[in-house]
Amino acid sequence: MPLRVAAKIDPADRNYFETEVKHLFDDPLVEFVGEIGDREKGEFLGNAYALLFPIDWPEPFGLVMIEAMACGTPVIAWNRGSVPEVIDDGLSGFVVEGIDQAVEALKKVPTHLSRWRCRRTFEQRFGVARMAHDYLRIYERLLRPSPRASSEAGRRPGRSLPALNESREGRAATKDGLSADAAQGYNRPSGTS
Asked: Which domains are delineated in the chain?
């Protein structure tokens, strides 16, 4: 199976890449495509069999894992940093301990993982509507007066944001807590207005 590698090589890392890494791409089954922009990323990730994420440090988030799942592409990632929190092992990909487990996980992709399920996991956990809803819940909680504060003399109760089932204008909101106008805006394909 061919391996395509997309990565940015920072100027500070150029010498290391040239002397230690570049020769590894001499294999006919390995292609280094270099840095890709947002326009190419969807096609690159969406056409991939899987995303390999062999991180060896405590990555705090790993946005590329989310981008792959948004394209319906399963992720095979090393068990480091945020990986176990981002990947639902066995649903949106596999969390592995090294190369041998990654190779075995690759073999299981067609029989154990669904591209539809990868995309659905992205929508449920990382979609715009979900994140906006979660932010609103946090803001409401922060603005809600604590029992202690509201019982103190001379204090006014805190203001809360509009209820999640109502938009600012008082119109009915969608089940995700967004007005119909806002929800429609979030469903536009990227690059359109």
From this structure: 36-125 (3.40.50.2000), 127-186 (no CATH)
What is the rounded CA–CA span in Å between residue 130 and residue 124? Answer: 7
Whole-prediction pTM value?
Answer: 0.70
DSSP E strand boundaries for the chain: 3-6, 30-34, 51-53, 75-78, 93-96
Pairing of strands 30-34, 51-53: unpaired
Give the pLDDT confidence of 82-138 residue by residue, as tens digits.
999 999 999 999 999 999 999 999 999 999 999 999 999 999 999 999 999 999 999
Residue 77 burial (CB < 10 Å; 0-12/13-18/19+)?
buried
- Half-sphere exposure in the Cβ direction for 192 (13 Å, CA): 6
